[in-house]
């Protein structure tokens, strides 16, 4: 079985690093990182990840705008997206589901639970 490729888009380098180490160590996935929505869209086009973990609150282009641009793009529209967000209410979850977002994981997240949460949201085996 080939390893999954996950793109983490977050403007905080610390979050990128923690997510990368956790997903690579716990799940054995290949992890790419991007520090902005624009960089993330470019990497999504070029590397075709199996999933994207996307921060909601970022400068310049926020996560929801980035998500919209990913969905408008023929090359990236089928890639499942999971949001990483500090702001997560029941109403937010409903809105995210209506937009087609697979799940929302609260920040700060438990590093050891990140891979199982992602796998569960996407129906992947760990």
Automatic annotation (TrEMBL):
It comes from the Bacteria. PROSITE patterns: RESPONSE_REGULATORY. Keywords: Phosphoprotein. The modification 4-aspartylphosphate is found at residue 55. The keyword Phosphoprotein applies. Residues 5-122 form the Response regulatory domain. GO terms for biological process: phosphorelay signal transduction system. This is Response regulator receiver protein.
